[in-house]
Design a protein that fits this description.
Length: 470
Amino acid sequence: MNFYLLKGFFFLALSLAILVACGTENAGIQAEDSSIESQALIDIVELEDGNFLVEGDMILSSEQTISSGVLAKSGAQSALFSSTALEWGANAVIEYYFVPANSSLGLTTMNARAKRDFVRALKDMSNGVAVNFKQVSSPGTHTVYVYTYSGEITPCMNTGATQGPDGCASLGKVSSSGYTNVLRFTASANHPASLVYRTFFHEMSHVLGFKHEQQRKDRDDSVTISASNLTDATNYGIDANGDYLGTNVFDMASIMLYYTVTPKSNIPVYLWRGVLPLQSSMDQRARKNLFGSETATNNTYYIKHSSGKYLCRSATGSSATITLNTTTSSLCVWNISSGVLNLQQNAAMSGIVLDHNYASTIRSTERTAQGFGIYFSYTSTNGFYLSIGGAGDRYQSKWIPMSNGADSLHIWNPLGICLGLNSTNSALQGYSCPEAMVRNYESTTPVMVSISGASVHWELYPTWSVSIPY
């Protein structure tokens, strides 16, 4: 194994995770690691397959490494690739293909819950944005291959390493001969944060062309990364030239920010940073700036309990009540909106606040005569009920589906309640899920698993066809 240590201030930069245009990225592989401190940010390491691990989290071919000039550059220069292989273009339809299990390659089948989480992440990513996704059974030239490993993701590991990342992805549209667009995940119990909504959203954002928030040139104004990981502690290897998408604000809520970084003392410490499976409002804006905007559509799902019962409405209109049915109908279809985080408000409920206009909601597909939505709500006084326009409480109608480390979801409300059924599965019942229990969502052992019992286990089933662009 050969090691090439860059002595200068190199950093493959030019990108704010989600706030930098694809035209400035490269076509290498972006490997995710749950620990910033475990990465050798200035090294170039030759891997066994002949590719190069650059800065601990990108895999480049030998041709890419040479053509980028990273071995020759010094000082504050960036290594850039041509933009021609990186941009998907406006109104893109991005195909994806789940690679079948292959024991000789260490591949397994992604479980059904994870596939539904994957679809949900892509639906939220494309809603209101002029980019669409489509699942295919036969891959084409630019299809994104989705690999699931039974153990470690060996193509994204440094030689000699014992544990790899939760996921890795090609960066931008790969069109060079011999290369493919890829997403790689693992089903290993050592990586409970791999097959979850947030990781899917983060990695597919790389495929769209976005890099990490902490790769901004101005990151040192907002966050601290341990100098022990850096060759030169006075210059963190950042070299980017400004902002390409109309904002120069470091986004502490970005889904592209590693949650292990430490905010500077003069920056508000948002405890939910990098934890909730929600994008920030700036994440969404960046995709619209890059791909263009389009009319948002309903993200409609069936909400199924582990007992086999579906959450439904008794009738159409605002006079409906909540029912539990063993079969589906149009009254069991719910519109679950894309959720975003908002850092411009303060509340006792959370450091990163759920924006009352955009946070995740579960609402019916009908409207009242006045045009107001009919929301699935909760209060300690009224329990579970349907409200009109959120009934004036910005939190009671906000629900966040969160992976629980098992083959199901918890549906969490910021008031500190998880949706569940009683012991006989005959009525809705709330279970205590305070903020402190869900804060460490991406820890080695997700805290949400501590909410025991099948009574709080749910699944979301898309009501649309995934084989048609969505």
